[in-house]
Specification:
Radius of gyration: 20 Å
Helix content: over 70%
Largest sheet: none
Distance between the termini: 18 Å
CATH class: Mainly Alpha
Number of strands: 0
Structural class: mainly alpha
Order of helices and strands: HHHHHHHHHHHHHHHHHH
Number of domains: 1
Oligomer: single chain
Length: 432
């Protein structure tokens, strides 16, 4: 299990490195380079618009790779998704700016970002099912949390490289070529991830499936549509909070508050590092007390913390900003540490790769794609961005309601029992 978990973690780290490095570049340099005819605010909005395209394509990636995962196995998904994302990310680093290529430059950026999203949409389902379907039931939450640590590692890698370049280069050098280096490095990271995954075996639960779904998406839509919508709504607050901290606040702090790029990156990275470190410990609580109670607690904490987080950000004091970001990300990980086990348990094995991945990535559209764009738009006034806090709080309340309608799936500690979940195929998934 340790070898499997580390291979899953390494893959998601590389995939999300690719995804996050684009978000950081969008906040810092893509607006002026690819949308120079826009005003600074409009350029940032346009850059975040290309950022959002990756989230729009993620559900499509989950459908494509979910079909492969449910028909042919979880293992092929792990290789194909990582290869696609790596190639697309290297391509972003090679796109000439608007000054060289004109309007074709942002169009190429959109296409490559779309391909990035396709790959990441497939990665999560493959990596999570690799651990969830190998793990013993009583430790499924713990082992399935390792792919959830991958995004933190990927974020730290992406922003660590950006921070080093930002600190070591002049502003002109960074804008001219320095921002491209993290994208080129994605090729080496992807190659390393593929080497780590080459010896992985197919999951036992997939091999035990009798009749495989011919059209997994059709079965999910016809038999589990309510479950997909509930999970998408439930997880949307996690995406919204994470990208408000990692992407919108970076742009807001540097452009509106005058905080240096280095200081903002350090504050955000420190909070993400703590989040990643506590993930497996929170997941163990999910194995002991259940998935749903932690998800409800995390949603409630997000709803209560958004206004304090914005107030602390507005101070522009590094320690206070760090405290605001940390509180938000700890509330976020209280939910997301257990979803690697929770979502697969909600679906029967024959459609699990498609169902879990589609719900997870639809939440990215609702929470991740829109948040930087909406937050940048509503924070345009002269005062504190309370509209951002209100927007995030509203999403948290929506997610809380969705989690309240979902069943518990965690197996009981002690003697085996039938799972409580009897809705939308959850009983079959929990039993597996």
């Amino acid at each position: 299990m340790a070898r499997i978990a580390m291979a899953a973690l390494a893959g998601t780290a590389v995939e999300f490195y690719d995804f996050f490095v684009y978000g950081t570049a969008a906040a810092l340099v893509l607006g002026p380079l690819f949308f120079p005819t826009f005003s600074p605010l409009a350029g940032t909005l346009a850059a975040f618009g290309t950022f959002a395209i990756g989230f729009v394509s993620r559900p499509l990636g989950s459908v494509l790779f979910g079909h492969i995962g449910d028909r042919y196995g979880r293992r092929p998904v792990l290789f194909a998704s990582l290869l696609l994302t790596g190639l697309a990310t290297v391509g972003v680093g090679c796109v000439p700016s608007y000054a060289t290529l004109g309007v074709s430059a942002p169009l190429l950026l959109l296409v490559l970002r779309f391909l990035q999203g396709l790959g990441v949409g497939g990665e999560w389902g493959g990596a999570v099912l690799l651990t969830a379907e190998h793990a013993p039931a009583g430790r499924r939450g713990l082992w399935s949390s390792f792919p959830q640590i991958g995004p933190s590692v990927g974020f730290l890698l992406a922003n660590g490289v950006m921070l080093a370049l930002s600190a070591g280069l002049s502003d002109a050098q960074f804008r001219e070529w320095g921002w491209r280096v993290p994208f080129w490095a994605a090729g080496l990271l992807a190659a390393g991830g593929l080497l780590l995954r080459r010896s992985l075996a197919e999951t036992p639960q997939f091999e035990q499936i009798g009749e495989r779904a011919r059209l997994p998406l059709a079965e999910v839509v016809s038999g589990h549509w309510r479950l997909v919508l509930l999970t998408a709504g439930a997880l949307s607050v996690g995406y919204a909070v994470f990208y408000a901290v990692s992407t919108w606040s970076l742009a807001y702090g540097t452009e509106r508050l005058g905080v240096s790029r280095t200081v903002m990156l350090v504050c955000i990275m420190a909070a993400v590092a703590v989040k990643g470190a506590v993930t497996p410990f929170v997941a163990m609580l999910g194995d002991r007390y259940g998935r749903r109670p932690l998800c409800l607690t995390g949603c409630a904490a997000c709803a209560l913390w958004m206004f304090p987080m914005v107030a602390l950000l507005q101070t522009a004091d590094p320690l206070l900003m760090f405290a605001g970001f940390l509180g938000a990300l700890l509330a976020f990980i209280t939910m997301f540490a257990v979803v690697g086990a929770y979502l697969p348990e909600l679906y029967e094995p024959r459609v699990r790769c498609t169902g879990a991945a589609v719900g997870y990535n639809l939440a990215g559209v609702l929470g991740g794609a829109l948040t930087p764009v909406v937050a940048t738009a509503v924070a345009g006034g002269s005062g504190p961005p309370w509209g951002v806090a209100a927007y995030l709080t509203a999403i948290a309340v929506l997610s809380l309601g969705c989690f309240a309608l979902l069943p518990e799936t965690a197996p009981a500690r002690g003697p085996a029992r039938k799972p409580a979940a009897e809705t939308e195929g959850a009983a079959e998934g929990a039993a597996a």
